[in-house]
Amino acid sequence: MSGTFTPRPGGAPLLRQVLSQASMEARLMLRNGEQLLLAVVIPVIVLVAGVRGGEDLDLDLSTKLGISDRPLVDILTPGVLALAIMSTSFTSLAIATGFERRYGVIKRLGASPLPRVGLLAGKVLALLVVEVVQLFVIGGVGQLLGWTPRFGLLGFLLAIMLGTAAFASLGLFVAGALRAEATLAAANLIYLLLLAGGAVVLPAAAYDGFGSFARLLPSGALGETVRTAFLDGAVAWRDLLVLAVWAAFGAGLTARTFKWE
Question: How far is residue 55's CA from residue 60's CA, in Å, rounded to a whole number?
Fold first, then answer.
């Protein structure tokens, strides 16, 4: 039949491109041992060590924070969930993207019909898939340790979306501005600094006078939104606004500076 086999060159619809890119990114992250270490193993170790160590030391954060009758595991588990989101959407993404730029993977994607916005959307969707896995694993460990959350669905979903957007945009900025080796060092250093003093695992109130500043960091804002969702079943609108500002700021930096090679 005439015209049956006429070639029709062109790219697939944008949505199909984004979903295909997201599927590939998620599979690569879940197959990579280093990525799994950052995404699952370290947060689980922090949770178990924090709860067991706090119990052995008779650490009573609930009194200091003005939260009555809440065990340590109820306070630490939401913070570790926030840490897992940060480790995946910032550290893992920055390192992976940095080495993709070094080996020419990003350059080859730049020659494909996939636009920059499609690449970003695919990476963010892949992060959300990995974060669902983290939620089940860390939440399951928390349950085994005695975690009893007051689940605020809206607050937690908003925290995931805005937290992922904020840290992913900042991670892509770091990966696009530095060489791969420098990205590796900077991403891990920032991760450790925010873990220690960014009010992500421990509430901002635990840092006394520094806590008000820590809540303005993306780590502190993410930690507070997740804790509010699971401790009070509420939405921390102020902290979500901070995350939205960081997401817009990081997206603007990335759009101006990110290079395909």
Answer: 9
Opening angle at CA 7, ends 5 and 9, nearest 5 = 155
Which residues are CB-contacts of 210 (< 8 A; sequence separation ≥ 6)?
197
Helix (H, G, I), strand (E, B) or coil at 65: helix
Three-class SS of 150-196? CCCHHHHHHHHHHHHHHHHHHHHHHHHHCCHHHHHHHHHHHHHHHHH
Query: pLDDT tens, 96-117?
Result: 888 877 777 776 766 676 777 7
Closest to 168 in 3D by CA, of 86, 106, 80, 81: 86
Distances (CA, A) of 128 to 75, 121, 142, 153: 23, 11, 20, 16
168 or 100, which is more confident?
168
CA distance 95 to 217: 21
pLDDT at residue 216, as a whole number: 92
∠ CA 171-174-180 to the nearest 5 degrees? 110
> What does the block give as tokens for 111?
């020659």
How far is Cα 43 from Cα 98, in angstroms, rounded to an integer? 23
Q: Decide if 234 contacts 228 (C-beta within 8 A).
A: yes
